[in-house]
């Protein structure tokens, strides 16, 4: 009886609306000194359970590999060959890998993280000016893109901006992080095109194959801010999901929390100084006909005393108009390996993914033949 009374007294829709209308996100709650997180952030205990492999189980898997890109020097054929072999194995078995000597300066990585922190730690009045749920806006600051559709909210705020193919005008971006966003996205585009060359070769295709079919055409930048959480066992920083991109380049900070799910177990992604984390997205799994895998991952709620920041750059054109149709690449299918997915557009895929929200299921299932 008491449980029913408590459940019925919880006005979820009203609390979601009230939280959204503050326009200050999770940071606003932390600034207000909350010691208990609101019910809208509570995740079911079954989702929160942390099934990590026992020391003897899957010990051969260890953790996601780190691959040395050798400063992206194309002339060194042995380094390139080693990188391709490493990426092929990682993309087939993990869908995740870290890259070092990737050609993006460590100074720029630090400046980008500082820019994210500076934006989110501005005064609430300044942040409110950018807060919106109008996803057609060039620059968008909000908390939980799927706030009203997901089963539970995550302890995280985000600002997002489409950086390519249409580069934003300087006045579209907040002055506090404008220059570093522009410079960092340029460097990520260069790195992404290089990675798509290596991925093409890892598939046995011509180096330009994936770039020629516009896998590197669009870039969406999401800059996440994970404030310290007073009850980290009740919620997530980001709940279980896979990415609706071809490829994702993630810039993490030193506070760990990212986990990858493989064979039913969650594996921590360790901090590797100066590394960028790369993962295969759903769209690349679809066009490679499951040759490369888009694994589910999540971010635990932040237990540190300082906010955790990360910058995820997704190679996709998202919901923006793009007529190109994608299906399994012809060269990768045969009578023995028939297409496993129907053809779709990036926009159709992204629209379905966004409407579904981060509910712990893969959007790829909807596109299976």
From TrEMBL:
**Which Gene3D superfamilies does the record match to this protein?**
B-lactam Antibiotic, Isopenicillin N Synthase, Chain (2.60.120.330)
Q: Does the keyword Oxidoreductase apply?
A: yes
Q: Name one GO molecular function term.
A: dioxygenase activity
- Show the coiled coil region(s): none
Cofactor(s) needed for function:
Fe cation
| Record keywords, A-Z | Iron, Metal-binding, Oxidoreductase
Q: Which family does it belong to?
A: Belongs to the iron/ascorbate-dependent oxidoreductase family.
Q: What protein is this chain from?
A: Fe2OG dioxygenase domain-containing protein
Organism of derivation: Arabidopsis lyrata subsp. lyrata (Lyre-leaved rock-cress)
């Amino acid at each position: 009886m008491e449980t029913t009374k408590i459940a019925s007294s919880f006005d979820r829709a009203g609390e979601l609306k009230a939280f959204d209308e503050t326009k200050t996100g999770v940071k606003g709650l932390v600034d207000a000194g909350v010691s208990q997180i609101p019910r809208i952030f509570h995740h079911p205990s079954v989702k929160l359970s942390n099934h990590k492999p026992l020391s003897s189980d899957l010990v051969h898997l260890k953790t996601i590999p780190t691959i040395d890109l050798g400063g992206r020097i194309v002339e060194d054929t042995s380094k390139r060959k080693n990188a391709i072999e490493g990426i092929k194995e990682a993309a087939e078995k993990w869908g995740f890998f870290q890259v070092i000597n990737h050609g993006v300066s460590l100074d720029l990585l630090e400046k980008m993280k500082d820019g994210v922190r500076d934006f989110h730690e501005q005064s609430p009045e300044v942040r409110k000016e950018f807060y919106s749920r109008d996803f057609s806006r060039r620059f968008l600051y909000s908390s939980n893109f799927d706030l009203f559709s997901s089963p539970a909210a995550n302890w995280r705020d985000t600002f997002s901006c489409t950086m390519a193919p249409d580069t934003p005008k300087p006045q579209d971006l907040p002055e506090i992080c404008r220059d570093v966003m522009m410079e960092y996205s340029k460097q990520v585009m260069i790195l992404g095109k290089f990675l798509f060359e290596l991925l093409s070769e890892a598939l046995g295709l011509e180096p330009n194959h994936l770039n020629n079919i516009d896998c590197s055409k669009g870039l969406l930048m999401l800059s996440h801010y994970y404030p310290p959480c007073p009850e980290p066992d009740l919620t997530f920083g980001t709940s279980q999901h896979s990415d609706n991109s071809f490829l994702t380049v993630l810039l993490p900070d030193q506070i760990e929390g990212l986990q990858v799910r493989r064979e039913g177990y969650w594996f921590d992604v360790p901090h590797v100084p100066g590394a960028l984390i790369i993962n295969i997205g759903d769209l690349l799994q679809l066009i490679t006909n499951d040759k490369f895998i888009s694994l589910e991952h999540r971010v635990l709620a932040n237990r540190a005393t300082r906010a955790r920041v990360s910058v995820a750059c997704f190679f996709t054109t998202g919901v923006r108009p793009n007529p190109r149709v994608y299906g399994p690449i012809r060269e990768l299918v045969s009578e023995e390996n028939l297409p496993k997915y129907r053809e779709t557009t990036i926009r159709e895929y992204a629209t379905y993914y966004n409407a579904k929200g981060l509910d712990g299921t893969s959007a790829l299932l909807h596109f299976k033949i």
